[in-house]
From TrEMBL:
<dbReference type="InterPro" id="IPR011051">
    <property type="entry name" value="RmlC_Cupin_sf"/>
</dbReference>
<keyword id="KW-0408">Iron</keyword>
<dbReference type="InterPro" id="IPR012093">
    <property type="entry name" value="Pirin"/>
</dbReference>
<dbReference type="Pfam" id="PF05726">
    <property type="entry name" value="Pirin_C"/>
</dbReference>
<dbReference type="GO" id="GO:0046872">
    <property type="term" value="F:metal ion binding"/>
</dbReference>
<comment type="similarity">
    <text>Belongs to the pirin family.</text>
</comment>
<dbReference type="InterPro" id="IPR008778">
    <property type="entry name" value="Pirin_C_dom"/>
</dbReference>
<dbReference type="InterPro" id="IPR014710">
    <property type="entry name" value="RmlC-like_jellyroll"/>
</dbReference>
<dbReference type="Pfam" id="PF02678">
    <property type="entry name" value="Pirin"/>
</dbReference>
<feature type="binding site">
    <location>
        <position position="104"/>
    </location>
    <ligand>
        <name>Fe cation</name>
    </ligand>
</feature>
<feature type="binding site">
    <location>
        <position position="58"/>
    </location>
    <ligand>
        <name>Fe cation</name>
    </ligand>
</feature>
<protein>
    <submittedName>
        <fullName>Pirin</fullName>
    </submittedName>
</protein>
<feature type="domain" description="Pirin N-terminal">
    <location>
        <begin position="21"/>
        <end position="120"/>
    </location>
</feature>
<feature type="binding site">
    <location>
        <position position="102"/>
    </location>
    <ligand>
        <name>Fe cation</name>
    </ligand>
</feature>
<keyword id="KW-0479">Metal-binding</keyword>
<feature type="domain" description="Pirin C-terminal">
    <location>
        <begin position="175"/>
        <end position="274"/>
    </location>
</feature>
<dbReference type="InterPro" id="IPR003829">
    <property type="entry name" value="Pirin_N_dom"/>
</dbReference>
Amino acid sequence: MNGIVRSRHRGIPAQDGAGVKLTRIINQPSLRHQDPFLMLDEFRSDNPNDYIAGFPPHPHRGFVTLTYMLAGQMAHEDSEGNSGVVGAGGAQWMKAARGIIHGEMPKQEDGLMWGFQLWINLPAAEKMSPAEWADHPEHSVPKIVYGDSEIRLIAGELEGNRGPVQQQGQRFLMADLRFSDNTAIPVFSAGQASRLAYVYQGSVRINGESVERGELVRLDADSNLTISAAAVPAGMILLAGEPIGEPIAQYGPFVMNTQAEIEQAIRDYQQGRLTG
């Protein structure tokens, strides 16, 4: 390894919701929580049997979900009265915080469904704050162009651009790097200690080191990056964030700081007091 790549990991097959087939990339045996990132799933199939059952209504408390679509459409409804449809190139951000019940269901009966869901932890001071939700369609996502390649900035700041997803008090980045030619894309370090890259199409070179489709790499936090395609077309999700540095207690859709808080979340859900 060249000093940029700290480790390499591959996701594992998994199912969630009502049986949706997916690949769990973060929060699996070889790669646990990467503070502040709790989980990263990729769902990708053109077989409706793999996704049609969707994610019927279920609870969350204590963290944020960020859904980003490459292809297909997913509909969202929640207990706060929010609803929307996220399509290719768009994102939906949901701060579950003290509690929300939501469902995510395919808005299609056939064709390719491809996207990601990222879970981002909240600091203890925010875990019981009010729930929030926002829809960010494709046209609201800034595109930073390099030749025939580009960065789509979903969250955070890069080169004077701001992604539509911003979270008060937390500084994190989510960017989609798409390569249609061999143009190199520079990404300068912002000093965020957790820095990850996942290649979802083709293969790329990060400071000369090849990373293949399906690989997630942990990257040095302080190095500037030069990223180019090793085989086009290529696509890569880049994540960076500042660790919260607090204990993590997780039970399924609840992420708190202590086991006692988890048990309270379960009781609140069972007694209809999770939301509101």
